[in-house]
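Researcher: Quick sanity check before group meeting.
Model: Go ahead. Protein one:
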Amino acid sequence: MIDFAKYRASYFLFSLTVIIAGIAALFLGPGLRFSIEFSSGAAVNATFLEVTPQESIELAIDSLGYESAVVQGLGDREYFLRLPVAEASERQQLDVRLALEEHAGELEGYSFDLVSPAVARETVRNGLIAVLIAVIGILGYIVYAFRSVRHPFRYGIAAIIALVHDIAAAFAVAGLFMLIASQWLHLEISSMFLVGVLTLLGYSINDTIVIFDRIRENILRETSRDIVATANYSIMESMARSINTSFTTLVVLLALFLLGPTTIRDFLFVMIVGVVSGTYSSVFTATQVLVSWETRSLGRLPFLGGGRGGAAPSPSTPARASQGG
């Protein structure tokens, strides 16, 4: 049987390294901007009949006097623009279109969305409340569902830590992608991004509960087995199911991401990262946090050693008499 718990410290270190690197990329690179739903402003998608250089788009925007505008190319003929709300907002849509046609060329497609600051603040608040309610609900459910074992609260906290890990991983990987491939991939924190996070919470916790459920059954069935052996055995029982489910889901998400509409690309990106991260965290984060909590040890690092990799000593085991002195 594979000893998954032995080097759990290395799993924690790996996750921490990836998350820190990704969060740093959010600040060092282009980062993830809030969509107009969360930050207020105007969002424009413009598609031209002919190939249009970005300089022409920037010239058109400069002619309107916007200082904090963002222009991002999505291809040779398609551009995404984010603009501040103009004082004469009722004419902004027409003014932007006329400026683009005058300086950049004839348009094939044009969409304009405007969100006021008040609506943006309400959207942010509602989004945070939705995530908080989801997390509290998950914690309460796990504590209740695992009330038949000792310390059910630990199972709930371990699962929440795994969820935080997955959300942080989604932002971190997005930051890395924006640093490396912002020219080809446009991501932002939008309503679809938030929907992806909420869906990710449900998907990830499902995988974690499957393993925790096996741990609970094995603990109640084999009372003499320690928590480390129980966790390893439960992971082995659940591994094939988790990998098969995640792989089939990932294939569908990748197909939609590559061939589907760009309007749901933020959602699909979060889900793709979440499926991989959720499968990883259920085995190497949630379960290992639970084992570390029960054994009061973080395990070992390869080639460096560290704390105990095994279970905490049983209270019935007599202490070895000290010698010497």
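Researcher: Fine. The other one?
Model: Protein two, sequence then structure:
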Amino acid sequence: MIETPLRGSPPEEIPLDAAPLVRVIAQVRYPLIASVETAGFIGPFQEAIRDEYPVLRPEKSRNVVLGPKDAISTRYDVLWRFHDESETWRVTLAPGFLAIETSRYTSRNDFLDRLRRVLTELHAHVNPRTVDRLGVRYIDRIVGRNLSDLPQLVRPEMAGILATPLAKDAQQLIAEALFRLPEGEDQLRARWASVPAGSTVDPAAVDPIDEPSWILDLDAFSQEFGAFEVESIGARARTLAERIYSFFRWVVTDEFHRRHGGRS
């Protein structure tokens, strides 16, 4: 039993044959690079990653900016969305960030290797000089019989009202906690929620589905400002991912591992 997931070495990974992960995301934010808006500028970056992510689907993002004296202006950014052929992996390049995400996660090493590869090409072809923020996020979803049996699968602190007779009348429950991590200025935001069919806690990251579900959303991030160095970003991303896994292991029970095909 893990006493505290916020300190100490991460536990050994237990692979799950039927992991309930629905999305894993890593994002690196940097000061705005306006040239990323132009197709000609990002062409070499596209060519560098096209073998892995051959499908390009650009989108426009609307951003509301608060200026002096509370003046509000709107800015539209181009988001260059690069997908693999199965569209289960996506790289997003924007003027102020790069993100990689997947709905088909296989392992921490694979995910971090993919992050390192796209950061290497970002450094070579876009060349951001500094990093403003690094975040890693893992989102799990429990449905069906496992949702009914949730008090057996997670700690009592996480099940909350769902472990009481009030559960049958609860339509939606959302809880959130923000923790300081021992690694410098790093933090971990944990959100867990029971939501009805057709609902979600974050439409940008978790699609609504046609049945009730319980969502565990773990987001670890660092806002220490520093130089853009691929290896140091990769090492920090690994530390954040390990801390998320420690928290996940603190949340779930042995029965959770059994039901999801845990292999020790």
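Researcher: One line on it for the slide.
Model: Residues 45 and 231 are 19 Å apart (CA to CA).
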